[in-house]
Design a protein that fits this description.
The chain has 82 residues and is mostly helical. The protein has one domain. It is built from three helices and no strands.
Length: 82
């Protein structure tokens, strides 16, 4: 695999994971009651316990996206391909 191909793959991974992060965030905020009811039923946790878990999930997903997708893509585009 060449550097150009790697940059293309990382670029698409970055876009796809950003879309997943955005959809997750929007779904958790717009469909909060439905999501809370579903997770309360299957996990036995209360809404007060679930809300911080959702926030942690979004924060971890964003950090992983930045660390594994965005940073390598930008490094290749800026420093290697110019």
């Amino acid at each position: 695999m060449s550097i150009d191909e790697l940059a293309a793959v990382l670029g698409w991974c970055t876009v796809i994971n950003l879309v997943l992060l955005t959809v997750s965030t929007v779904a958790l905020f717009l469909l909060q009651k439905v999501v809370l009811q579903f997770h309360e039923r299957i996990s036995g946790l209360s809404a007060e316990q679930l809300k911080p878990i959702y926030f942690q999930y979004l924060a971890r997903m964003k950090l992983l996206w930045i660390f594994f997708n965005l940073t390598p893509y930008l490094a290749i585009r800026v420093f290697i391909l110019g």
